[in-house]
Amino acid sequence: MSMITLKPLAEHVGAEVVGVDLGHVTDADVDVLRRGLADYGVLFARDQSLTPEQHIAFAKRWGAIDINNYFPIDGEYPEIAEVKKSETQQTNIGGAWHTDHSYDQIPAMGSILLARETPPSGGDTLFASMTAAFDALSEGMKATLRTMRAVHSADHIYAADGIYAQTDQADLLRGHDLRTRAVHPVVIKHPETGREILYVNPAFTLYFDGWTREESLPLLQYLYQIPQNEAFQCRLQWAPGSIAIWDNRSTWHYAMNDYHGHRRLMHRITLSGCELFGA
Ligand SMILES: O=C(O)CCC(=O)C(=O)O
Ligand SMILES: [Fe+2]
């Protein structure tokens, strides 16, 4: 028996987890959370004063841990990546709509992000349901997209000549010499629920397989504006000790960069995933 209650945060995505100390979860709690993550795409809990060891132990209840190749790692705990912005930095991490790790052939399942230091206001994270975005399309568009694949990469973001290299996050990030490329179905089936998901994102999707970038962009842009409708989103407002667990297959996220002059430090553990298949 688990004492956990899940309270939906919005119509299509997100639930707040109440009645749990994530530092001491039972197997029954983990089952409820696993089902909740599949149903809601992102789970959010407040006031979880986990130590780094407890954060890692909780992550291991979900499966294996991926080490992100780009984010700075907390020296003592290689499993924990730091997502941070100082008082003097202008650029944040994740400040545009994206799905983590779609540039990997076996993308990370999700992440467990724990807020350590938060600004007095701002610094929220938005999540969008890519299941709801797919459901909103016409049957004709759905059928066409089911036949397509898309090419993803992170090189234009993280490489030595990529976007972050031009910013004040450049010195913190690693992996400038890595090269990534992955091809995934445009419509994937969620490995647990079987629900269909629109699996392209503005950060890492380059073009449709077999199409040019120029040919791909108009359709990609059409698809991208759908989850940007607030009706498909939820918003997480952080305080130290808030924690989010998200599913990278069924959601996009966006870290707001509206707290210049203040520090924000998050600890992220990335959860390993599986290969993604179409319908
Ligand atoms: O800082 C955040 O709220 C999220 C940053 C992000 O995109 C990530 O950790 O994957
Ligand atoms: Fe992200």
What does this structure look like?
The protein has 279 residues and is α+β, with helices and mostly antiparallel strands. The protein has a single domain, classed as 4-Layer Sandwich (Double-stranded beta-helix), CATH 3.60.130. The chain is built from 6 helices and 16 strands. The mean pLDDT is 94. It binds 2-oxoglutaric acid (AKG) and fe (ii) ion. Fe (ii) ion binds next to loops. 2-oxoglutaric acid is lined by residues 83, 93-94, 100, 111, 113, 125, 253, 255, 266, 268.
The helicity comes to: 10-25%
The number of distinct helices, counting runs of at least 4 residues, comes to: 6
Distance between the termini: 35 Å
Give the number of DSSP strands: 16
Main sheet overview: 8 strands, mixed
The fold-level CATH name is: Double-stranded beta-helix
What is the H/E string? Answer: EEHEHEEEEHHEHEEEEHEEEE
Question: What is the CATH level 1 assignment?
Answer: Alpha Beta
Contiguous uncertain segments of 5+ residues: none
CATH superfamily: Clavaminate synthase-like
Which CATH architecture would you pick?
A: 4-Layer Sandwich
Helix/sheet category: alpha+beta
Overall pLDDT metric: 94
The backbone outline, from C-alpha atoms, is globular
